Amino acid sequence: MKRLTVPQIQRRKFEGKTDEPLVMLTAYTARQAQLLDPHCDMLLVGDSLAQVIYGLPSTLPVTLDMMIAHGAAVVRGSYHSVVLVDMPFGSYEASPQQAFASASRVMAETGCAGVKLEGGEAMAETIRFLTQRGIPVMAHIGLTPQAVNALGGYGARGKSQEEHAKILGDAKAVAAAGAFGMVVEGVMEELADIITTSVDIPVIGIGASARCDGQVLVAEDMLGMFERTARFVKRYANLAETISQAAESYAAEVRNRSFPGDDQVYRPKK
Length: 270
Ligand code: KIV
Ligand code: NA
What we know:
This protein is of the alpha/beta class and 270 residues long. It has one domain: Phosphoenolpyruvate-binding domains (TIM Barrel), CATH 3.20.20. It contains eleven helices and eight strands. Strands 1-2-3-4-5-6-7-8 form an eight-stranded parallel β-barrel, surrounded by five helices. Helix 5 links the parallel strand 3 and strand 4. The longest helix is centred in the C-terminal third of the chain and has 17 residues. It is globular. 3-methyl-2-oxobutanoic acid (KIV) binds next to loops. Sodium ion binds next to loops.
């Protein structure tokens, strides 16, 4: 099977296939990518790896080198999905030129199909600069975790009239600037619906209701790796319990000397 392309993803919105939403999950490692890839349209190497993999308190400390290392692993582990890599905090906001220098490294050193960056109207010029120079960009608006210090937390956005208008303006601005799609995170259903019908590029929701052209979740959230998750997460497995039970069994067998057993031992052939 040939790998999907960014134009194919973008066209899905016009092919009367909005009844078949786009499927996206995060992936950070090669093996995880191998397992998720056949079921997805897009794999996102999210900067959420900060909390999920590195135990960091927010996404702000993530570096370009971290994103490149994980991005390359996910590209190596997948052959079907479009792989997108998050631009980390501080690597793109200063100017379109800074964004191009960072994004071109991500593209060249990982082999991914495009980048995602946070911000609406304020990033429109940068999105235009990158897309005109061959770098597909997915925007990320609404709840933008890199702006946690400015937003004052991770609560849902678009509750007030002003915020609602601001986020709708962001959606229109990034679409006009040439983004091939956008993630809309943590917004009221009504706003997600208006955004999705107002722009001609795919809108991928997370905590943004079913009124979007697709959905994304952090894979570890969906797999039940964490006790506490946001309200919008649905768990499809309980890996935390599976892993704890496996570790408990292993530890018990090592301690009572039933592991390694006869099947796991090298001995001369008889
Ligand atoms: O970093 C991430 O995982 C993301 C998705 C949740 C959209 O940006
Ligand atoms: Na992210």
